[in-house]
């Protein structure tokens, strides 16, 4: 099997490394195509990586483009004569020309148990919604958003103290697990994509930093606590603005801090949430 990989973030690089390990075991097929953004694009993107080192050690040329749907990108994919193409950790939506540029299709991953949670901001939403389980789905891309047939899933339990930091690590590990479990039988032609049950589909909207604002006069301590855990690093953080200052909260709890421990009280409708890791920003102050 001839396959390719497009990515520009650490999550995708981790999957490539897992594929390299499978290659050393003789169960991967042939990696013959690597695609990514030009070096000057998305330089501030969280987890941004470059594939030059991968290309050097694998001997696979790295193709760089502005957009995956540009004619030069599509042409390079077609020229690679691929059976499958992975596109992982990529914000540009692949169009019809890309989806039909290989013999079998294009594969993506999404950090929910599809068809639940189509859309964006999957890690924060799973915590904000108070779910006790989420997961990662590997699926064949189609012209919809997260609507294509499934190739495999890994379930991830969410603990009562889960943060976006710890859940993101679990999601990253699940990506590697899916590559290891699904890719070898895929290379042997033993997997048939299974259609999603669209009647069970839910969609989670994108989030902006402004959505992290807390409104203590209408929120319970439990809701504030979930928001803080969901929006902590690597996300922009939950925050409350009062007395001409913004307090950005990274961690805390409903339990009163020990004597002498720095803390900031957030008075909710049913009690007090105590921020213990936070930053104070003066409203209107110049950067």
TrEMBL record:
One of its GO terms (molecular function) is methionyl-tRNA formyltransferase activity. The keyword Transferase applies. Residues 188-215 are annotated as: Disordered. InterPro entries: Formyl_trans_C, Formyl_transf_N, Formyl_transf_N_sf, Formyl_transferase-like_C_sf. Gene3D superfamilies: 3.40.50.12230. Residues 66-179 form the Formyl transferase N-terminal domain. It comes from the Bacteria. GO terms for cellular component: cytosol. Keywords: Transferase. Residues 213-261 form the Formyl transferase C-terminal domain. This is Methionyl-tRNA formyltransferase.
């Amino acid at each position: 099997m001839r396959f390719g990989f497009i990515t520009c973030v650490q999550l995708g690089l981790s999957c490539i490394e897992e594929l390299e390990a499978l290659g050393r075991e003789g169960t991967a097929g042939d990696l013959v195509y690597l695609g990514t953004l030009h070096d000057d694009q998305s330089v501030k993107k969280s987890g941004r990586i470059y594939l030059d080192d991968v290309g050097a050690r694998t001997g696979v040329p790295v193709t760089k483009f502005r957009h995956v749907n540009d004619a030069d990108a599509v042409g390079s994919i077609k020229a690679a004569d691929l059976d499958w193409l992975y596109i992982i950790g990529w914000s540009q939506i692949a169009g019809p020309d890309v989806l039909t540029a290989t013999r079998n299709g294009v594969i993506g991953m999404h950090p929910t148990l599809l068809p639940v949670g189509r859309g964006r901001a999957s890690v924060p939403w799973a915590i904000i919604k108070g779910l006790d389980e989420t997961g990662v789905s590997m699926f064949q891309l189609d012209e919809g958003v997260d609507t294509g047939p499934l190739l495999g899933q890994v379930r991830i339990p969410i603990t009562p103290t889960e943060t976006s930091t710890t859940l993101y690590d679990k999601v990253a590990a699940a990506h590697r697990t899916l590559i290891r479990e699904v890719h070898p039988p895929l290379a042997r032609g033993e997997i048939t994509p299974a259609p999603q049950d669209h009647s069970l589909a839910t969609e989670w909207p994108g989030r902006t930093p402004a959505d992290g604002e807390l409104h203590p006069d209408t929120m319970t301590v439990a809701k504030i606590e979930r928001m803080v855990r969901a929006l902590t690093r690597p996300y922009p953080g939950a925050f409350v603005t009062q007395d001409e200052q913004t307090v950005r909260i990274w961690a805390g709890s409903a339990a009163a801090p020990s004597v002498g421990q720095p803390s900031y009280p957030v008075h909710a409708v049913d009690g007090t949430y105590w921020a213990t890791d936070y930053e104070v920003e003066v409203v209107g102050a110049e950067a």
